[in-house]
Amino acid sequence: MSDLNRHVLVVDDDFLIVMGLTKQVQDMGLTVCGSASTADEGIELARLHRPMVTLMDMRLDGAKDGVDAALVIHEEIGSKVIFITGSQDPNTVIRINTDHPHAILFKPVSAKQLRTAIDAAIGLGVG
Fold first, then answer.
1. Is residue 71 a part of any domain in this protein?
2. How far is CA 76 from the centre of its chain?
3. Which candidate, 58, 52, 100, places its Cα nearest to that of 77?
4. Rg (Cα) of the chain, in Å, rounded?
5. Residue 106: inside a domain
6. What is the largest CA-CA distance in the chain?
7. Which one, of 28, 15, 24, lies nearest residue 60 by Cα?
């Protein structure tokens, strides 16, 4: 993963959640390279920016969901995917786990939860 940038990509179709996650990531001293509301937009931004971490919602605008995007991003880019979802439905969790996510966080996500997951994803240990 040496060719990945220390960037974070945010993929979520809720503008307020995107803004909150972006602020939390920036407060950690990391750069948000972009945000997307659909799976296809997320994939294109990942290809362009090669983020080290992708924060991925499960339900997105459009026909594809977060797992569809995460599978491509993980395979093509190698980005660690942290799912952030509002659903604790067992079928949703099973679907998310088909991608071997780095972590699954359930909304609302605290700054500490997000920091811990991102720190672990980029190899900083627990912060």
1. yes
2. 15
3. 52
4. 13
5. yes
6. 36
7. 15
